[in-house]
User: Fold this.
Amino acid sequence: MEAGRKSIEIGVVGLGQCGGNLGYEFYQRGYKVICLNTSPNDLRTLPIPEEEKLYIGLFGRDGTGQDMALGRRSLEDNSSKITELIWDRLSNSDHLLLTAGLGGGTGSNIATLTTILKELRKPIS
Assistant:
């Protein structure tokens, strides 16, 4: 296989600050990435194209303050925006790889994100 060519197209979805940072690492290696966060400040610092970032916060907040219920509601209230963006940007992906930290903030709701993304009918890990 030639350098840079992949046998399977993996789309990466970074959730929260840690997930976004991990997503950026994949982006640097040539993967298509979408980063979701409840913190506009965290999104702003990610050096990926703006159209591959989505602010999912509520009430203009900057993050969830490790409030898992707020993180879950942020995902649920933005579920249509999330699926629309991921379908638009990652529809050619054979598999979706979700990245997140589990420290109690936005990323700890990765199970909620998985449920939202089921409708895309793509393998998820």
Remarks:
- Helices lie at 16-28, 40-45, 68-77, 79-90, 110-117.
- The chain has a mean pLDDT of 92.
- The chain is about 40% helix and 15% strand.
- The first strand starts at residue 10 and ends at 15.
